[in-house]
Design brief:
By secondary structure, the protein is α+β, with helices and mostly antiparallel strands. Helices cover 27% and strands 29% of the residues. The chain has six helices and eight strands; from the N terminus they run ββααααβββαβαββ. An eight-stranded mixed beta sheet has the order 1-2-3-4-5-6-8-7, with helices on both faces. α1 packs across α4. The chain is globular.
Length: 204
Amino acid sequence: MSSLTSDDHSHDDSHDVSDDDRGDYVIRAIRPDDWPLVKQLRLDALRDPAAPLAFLEDYEDAVAKADTFWQDRAVGSGEGATAARQFIAEAADGSWAGSVTVLIEEAGTKDWAGYAVERRQGHVVGVYVRPEHRGNGLIKALFDAGVGWARERGAERVRLLVHEENARAQGAYRKVGFVPSGVVVPFFKERSETELEFVLEWPS
């Protein structure tokens, strides 16, 4: 899920709102020079007890990556990027409380797992909120930003995959409007386990 898909659909981002106040947080897209914080938040997420179920990447693999990897990621999913956008919640002290990334998947292509994409859609990955910031509605603010961006990019729906045993995450996704689609796929790390597709759709 760490790779970013290509996208040749032109789009004028000049009207995008980069800073969105949500109570004690600012929800915004990352910027290229944010890469050290992008790296730190990802490493912290991969140390979370739920990380083995929530992320395809391991901490050991991520921490070994060169700074250029994180720099490229911050460009590829930062302000102005059209194939992906990472939104973060910035607390009053400047620290990052959480993050959501949305990839754009084009109809007629295949997703990261090799499955056919039937329509233009957003794919939510890299969801993480620090424990001390959970339970206050922050996850909804992050999802609102990510889903809103995907809709602006012409997505017909937004989806995500969640491990069958990750009940906490499933509950959080239901609260922000996602529901199971009925699609079940093998878990990338362990083919005997499965992930459930959750989707958020809107009238066409």
